[in-house]
Amino acid sequence: MYIRCLHDERIEHFVFLVTVSYQMPDYILIEFSTFVGLAQRPTFSTCENTIHVPTTYCSYQELRQNFDLCLLSDEAYLYTTY
């Protein structure tokens, strides 16, 4: 649902966060975790094109807010992993 709501520019940023490339990969894996607290945030393994998403969010809005923070973070574009 989150990805479907993204505009083209944000989709490019999303793909970059997952792959460190603006080209769409053959696949993107999604793995789920049960992290809470400060560890409760989406993380990305760029070598494996994998998104690690906590299942412990209280609401979709909370998940969306965390993903938006990742997409808007300048630091995410300075390093090869976030």
Which structural category do the helix and sheet elements fall into?
Answer: alpha+beta
Strand content: 15-25%
The N- and C-terminal alpha carbons lie at a distance of 22 Å
Helix content: 25-40%
Task: Kindly report the CATH topology.
Answer: Hect, E3 ligase catalytic fold
What's the CATH H-level homologous superfamily? Hect, E3 ligase catalytic domain
Mean pLDDT across the residues is 89
Order of helices and strands: HEEEH
Largest sheet: 3 strands, mixed
Q: What is the tally of beta strands? A: 3
Task: Report the principal-axis shape.
Answer: globular
Total domain count: 1
Output the radius of gyration. Answer: 12 Å
Report the top-level CATH class. Alpha Beta
The assigned CATH architecture is: 2-Layer Sandwich
Discrete helix count: 2
> Spatial order of the strands in the main sheet?
1-3-2
The stretches of 5 or more residues where confidence is low (pLDDT under 50) are none
Considering the chains and any ligands shown, give keywords for the structure.
three-stranded mixed β-sheet; 3 strands; 82 residues; globular; alpha+beta
Description:
With 82 residues, the protein is an alpha+beta fold. It has one domain: Hect, E3 ligase catalytic fold (2-Layer Sandwich). Helices cover 30% and strands 16% of the residues. It has two helices and three strands. Strands 1-3-2 form a three-stranded mixed β-sheet, with helices on one face. It is globular. The relative contact order is 0.19.
What's the short version?
The mean pLDDT is about 90. The protein has a 3-stranded mixed β-sheet with strand order 1-3-2, covered by helices on one side. It has helices at about 10-20, 60-70; strands at about 30-35, 45, 50-55.
